[in-house]
Specification:
The protein is α+β, with helices and mostly antiparallel strands and about 220 residues long. It has one domain (about 5-220): Fumarylacetoacetate hydrolase, domain 2 (Alpha-Beta Complex). It is built from five helices and 18 strands. It has a six-stranded mixed beta sheet. A five-stranded mixed beta sheet has the order 6-18-17-13-14, with no helix packed on it. Strands 10-7-16 form a three-stranded antiparallel beta sheet. The radius of gyration is 16 Å and the shape is globular. About 40% of the residues are buried. Bound molecules: zinc ion.
């Protein structure tokens, strides 16, 4: 497995590689496609730093735990410490924006959910968070109007817009920082739009965020 480090505006960063805080069901249509209720407040979970790999490199997915689903998501790179922050502090702490895959062992997750057990094994395994290079926040005019698309073998599977987040980025960072201090180098995944599905070895993937980021990658077993 390749060693991960952050890249921002094509420059390798000295920011530490930290945790990844994720939000589940942040798009109503995606909650519905998995027969989950639309939550009244953010559903949070964490992937460890060992889940991070570079999206641009071939993706190694586990083969012995059932289906591994893609979830394309806008990723936010944190540049300053946030604890119990307000929206203004959250806005100035964002270093950059990228795209990530919240890889999910869906069958294992369903089994764990049925038993009311935590999801960690299904969401936090090694390689479970491929993430792109980041674009500096100064280059982004509107975080909440970015198209998030994923093509699998040329077919458009996910086509959502960050405008449809139930909890937009700034209130999401405020909410997260009430529970988990966000440190420089941490990443926040902001939820997936509808259209998630299983990956297979040999798949080619193209993932984009507006006209900011476009990554082509492939799946290996
Ligand atoms: Zn997700």
């Amino acid at each position: 497995m390749t060693h991960y480090s952050h890249t921002l505006d094509a420059v390798p960063q000295t920011l530490p590689v930290g945790k990844v805080v994720c939000v589940g069901r942040n798009y109503a249509e995606h909650a519905r496609e998995l027969n989950n209720p639309v939550p009244s407040e953010p559903v949070l979970f964490i992937k460890p730093s060992t889940a991070l790999v570079k999206l641009e490199q071939p993706l190694e997915i586990p083969s012995k735990f059932g289906a591994c689903h893609f979830e394309a998501e806008m990723a936010v790179l944190i540049g300053e410490r946030l604890t119990g922050c307000n929206e203004q502090q959250a806005a100035t702490a964002i270093a950059g924006v990228g795209v990530a895959l919240d890889l999910t062992l869906r069958e294992l997750q369903s089994t764990l959910k049925e038993k009311s057990l935590p999801w960690e094994k299904a969401k936090g395994f090694d390689g479970a968070c491929p993430v792109s290079v980041f674009v500096g926040v100064q280059n982004i005019t509107d975080l909440q109007n970015q198209q998030i698309q994923l093509r699998q073998n040329g077919e458009l599977q996910q086509d959502g817009n960050s405008a449809d987040m139930l909890t937009p980025v700034l209130p999401l960072l405020v909410y997260i920082s009430q529970f988990f201090t966000l440190s420089p180098g941490d990443i926040v995944l902001t939820g997936t739009p509808a259209g998630v599905g299983p990956l297979a070895a040999g798949d080619s993937l193209e993932i984009s965020l507006g006209n900011l980021i476009n990554v082509k990658t492939e799946v290996v077993s």
